[in-house]
Amino acid sequence: MLRHRPFRCFYLTLPLTAALAGLSGCADRPDLSGRVAPVDTTQPWPNLLSSQMISAAPPLDEAGTEAAMALAGRAAALAARGRTLSKTPVLTQAERARLMAALARAGAPS
């Protein structure tokens, strides 16, 4: 009969966690000097925004509306082009027959 050992996993992970923590202390710190922007101490602190200001709808401007209409027109043109391309066959009848014959010779399912 097998006995249930609920803390066996704990006894295995405890030494591994301790070894990992000990070895991580020996690692060099990464050089982040080129990745972190320096703080300008002469600038004032930024203002915090309230949740009402964050959730409020942005004001509509003419440039945003213009860009949205241009994107909608482009999307419609691409959809029309896609419909046109899906109606035209990719292979001619001769190319299709040649490929089907090659598949039949290879014994591949068609």
TrEMBL record:
Keywords: Signal. Residues 1-27 form the signal peptide. This is Lipoprotein.
